[in-house]
Design brief:
about 60 residues
Length: about 60
Amino acid sequence: MIENEILREVWRNRDAFAKRHRYNLDAMVEELRQMEPQSPNKLVDRSAELKKTRRRKRQRSDR
């Protein structure tokens, strides 16, 4: 099945990336942060939406 082939490729790439960084999460995050400005993809910051959602949930639970 094609989906399994795609997943296997994603997992293979993820594992190779982790292995390159000796499974050090800090090193992986640092490289991803350095790669971010060169990415052609537009990043969306949803932190404001998350704060609003949490605030609404707190208000409901306070009632």
